[in-house]
Structures are given as C-alpha cells and as structure tokens.
Amino acid sequence: MKVRDLQHEVLPRATPEERSRQRAVVSLRKLLNANVRSGNVARYDSEGAPAFTARQGRQPQSPEDIRAALFESQRYRMWSAANRSAQEMLWVSVGEPVYRDIDRMSAAARALIESPDRKGSLTLDPDYDPSPEVADIDIHLQPGGYGLDLGPDDVVAGALYETGGNVFSFGQGAGRGDTKTGVAVRLLEEHFPDLEPRRILDIGCSAGAASAAYAATYPQADVHAIDIGAGMLRYAHARAESLGVAVHFHQMDAAVLNFADDGFDLVVSHNVLHEIGAEKRRAMIRESARAVRPGGVVIHQDVSIRFEPTIVHQVERDWDTHFNNERHWHTYATADMRADMLAAGFADEDIVEHNLPAIHGSNRWYAITARKRG
Q: Residues 192, 224: contact at Cβ < 8 Å?
C-alpha cells in the first residue's frame, strides 16, 4: 500500500475533462520546478544581484536584500508569478471533481464509518477548537485549510488534501512509489531492524495515507492517528476502511496528546514540522517523547529544505513562506531540531538527523530520529 493515488470509495471520481486539467497542472508544475526554478540562483548571480547593486549602490547582504535582488530579475518574477498561478490552478483542478462528486463521496464515507464490519474507529471531540495557528490558515492555499468542517458528514478537507497532494507531488516529479511512509519504513529497517512495532501513533495524519500504509505494513500493530479537523478525519477513517485496514483516528492537538505515558512502540509525524510554529513544534516533540515507550522509536520527517548550501539558496527556498501560505516554512528550515529533541529528554548520542533519498527519483526527505532509553 506504499504507493500514491490509491483508488478507494471516497476518492473523487474525475471526468476525462477534469483528469485532463489535472494532467495539465502536473505538466506545468514539472516545467516550472524542473526546468525553470533550477536556474533561479544563477539568475540571481547574473541579473538580480548586479541590478540591485546598480540601483542601491551596494551589494545585497541581508536575506531581505537578497529577496529584493531576486525580484530584480525579470525571469525570476515571471517564474514566481507562474508558480503562484500554478498552485491556484491546482486547487481549481481538484476542487471541481470534489464538489461535483461530494454527495456520492459523503454517502460512501458515512456508510463506511457506520458499517458494523468496520475495522478501525473515529473519535471526534465536539468541544475541541482546532488550533488557529493551523486551522485559520489555508496552508499551501488549500481552500478552507486543514480544519475545514462543513457538517456532520463532511469529507471535503480530506478529499482536497489527498487529491491536491497527488497533483502537487506528481508535479514535483514524484512517482507513484514515492511515499513518506515508504521512506520511513526503509529507515526503520536500516537503523532499527529489531523494532517490531505493536502500537503506532501517527501525529498530524491529514487524509490518513501514512496511517493506512503503516496499518498495511505492520498488520499486527494497533495504529492510532490524530489531526485537528473533523472533515479531514472523517475522510481519513473512511479511506482506511475502504482500503481494508484498521486505524483508530482521534481529533486532538499534536501539542497535547491524550494518550498515556510510554504507550507506543513507534511515534511518527510526516510534514508536520513545517506547518507549526516553534512553541507547538517543541511541545509536539516533548509529547512524542512522553508517549513512546522505553526502547521505542520516534521519527519526525519533513521536506528536505534544511541543507541549503548558501544564503541565496536559503532565501530562494523561502518563496513558499511569502507566496504559498507556508507561514512556518522558514521557522522549520532554520530550527535547531537536535536541541528540541534534547530538551524533550532524548540522549544526544541517540539523536540522528537524516538526509534521505526518495524511494524513486531525485527527491529527498529530512528526518530526525531517536530511541527512548529505559
């Protein structure tokens, strides 16, 4: 089950015209990211910095100077505008089939969630107020954001997330076999071969792709997953049920896990670090350390934007902070993750930062791992 774009009952059924538009967005994103963005730093050197120096009478020095110098390049401005437009087009291309097919999807989700033969469970908290730090932002421009909840049977947030995520990833050049779970499982096999997880917690599960993949990979394990949005979690639960795996989904905050101490063999998060601020990130890491048992393993995995070679590369990378509603992109990229893990109680010699290759292709992932001592 470690592939993207799995077919299941709550996935929107796109028409040929809708699939064509999504393929067009994928092609545009590949063009912009593989063929154009790769030259942004060179354009800074050849166009942006000289133009900035001529205009200001000095060379760019600070990150703000470098960002301004990038925009002195006409080609960079064109790429930036086109990349923003492509992201907006992405959500139009996936929003059309989601809202056209929503009645069927909602009915399918309700039947799966209420089925007497269901394998997992869904626990929603009617008194929970999703963290505004995440819920009040349309992260990476996803309409309504992660906390969107349109009513008792709503699954729109999850449908948008999964479908949009597939279009986005394929537009980055990721193949169907490139998944975060696949990378994490390979990491476990290589670095913790003795770990046989019987109880797994997936923090910030979104549409539940990783949660379901862990349940399929470790069928003996009791898999739990949390996120903030009821709509997201309904979709994730129905998705897992449609795929025939047992996952127990809970609505709760990553910074306040309502689980007992030492209760899990494996605690993971995927792409959560860059979606939350420093205070919540540190609280999540503390909670993951508390919830994992002695001898158990914690993995926090995210996008590989923490190994840029120069300050110009770092500023170019921060485009998403300013134009893609990734408010904590830079916060994550510059965070001292090792210090956060140390503060949570892990021993220094047990903490490892990884720069991981994707399963296929040239993409890379960041992860920080630690084993809890007894």
A: no
pLDDT per residue as tens digits for the range 298-346:
999 999 999 899 999 999 999 999 999 999 999 999 999 999 999 999 9
Tokens 């990491």, residue located: 187
pLDDT for 168-226, tens place per residue? 988 787 777 778 999 999 999 999 999 999 999 999 999 999 999 999 999 999 999 99
The more confident residue out of 3 and 291 is: 291
Token pair belonging to 11: 């996935």
**Kind of pairing between the strands at 248-251 and 121-123:** parallel
Instruction: Give the pLDDT of residue 1.
Output: 64
The per-residue pLDDT for 363 is: 85
Rounded Cα gap, residues 70 and 299, in angstroms:
35
Residue 334 near residue 345 (C-beta atoms within 8 A): no
Q: How far apart are CA 56 and CA 162, in angstroms?
A: 46
Q: Which residues are registered as beta bridge partners of 330?
A: none
Q: What angle do CA 30, 70, 325 make, to 5 degrees?
A: 60
The 3-state secondary structure of the chain, one letter per residue: CCCCCCCCCCCCCCCHHHHHHHHHHHHHHHHHHHHHHHHHHHHHHHHHHHHHHHHHCCCCCCHHHHHHHHCCCHHHHHHHHHHHHHHHHHHHHHHHHHHHCHHHHHHHHHHHHHCCCCCCEEECCCCCCCCHHHHCCCHHHCCCCCCCCCCCCCCHHHHHHHHHHHHHHHHCCCCCCCCHHHHHHHHHHHHCCCCCCCEEEEECCCCCHHHHHHHHHCCCCEEEEEECCHHHHHHHHHHHHHHCCCCEEEECCCCCCCCCCCCEEEEEEECCHHHCCHHHHHHHHHHHHHHEEEEEEEEEEEECCCCCCCHHHHHHHCHHHHHCCCCCHHHHHCCCHHHHHHHCCCCHHHCEEEEEECCCCCCEEEEEEEECCC
* Cβ contacts of 261 within 8 Å, gap of 6 or more: 290, 291
Cβ neighbours of 295 (radius 10 Å): 14
